[in-house]
Specification:
This protein is mainly α. The protein has one domain (11-70). The protein contains four helices and no strands. It has helices at residues 11-17, 20-27, 43-49, 54-70. It is globular and about 30 Å long. Pfam families: DUF1858. Residues 8-57 form the DUF1858 domain. InterPro entries: CHP03980_redox-disulphide, DUF1858, ScdA-like_N_sf. It comes from Mesorhizobium onobrychidis.
Length: 71
């Protein structure tokens, strides 16, 4: 199944839709896995809360998802 990355998806939706995204989240030092707020935070919200560059985070998540889809 082809997954699509959407900037308005919540972190929870992204991680459930593509477990490869979890690696990106953990590598960035984010604790979104299991966090009750992950079901409300978009990538933008999460980047802001963790003081990360939103464009870089989006790129890394998108790349992880696309790499998984091409396997």
């Amino acid at each position: 199944m082809k997954r699509k990355f959407s900037d308005d998806a919540t972190m929870d939706e992204i991680m459930h839709g593509s477990p490869a995204a979890i690696r990106v989240v953990l590598q960035r030092g984010m604790l979104c896995v299991g966090c009750p707020i992950a079901s409300f935070h978009t990538v933008s919200d999460a980047a802001r809360e963790h003081d990360l560059d939103e464009e870089e985070l989006s790129y890394d998540l998108r790349t992880a998802i696309e790499r998984t889809d091409s396997d």
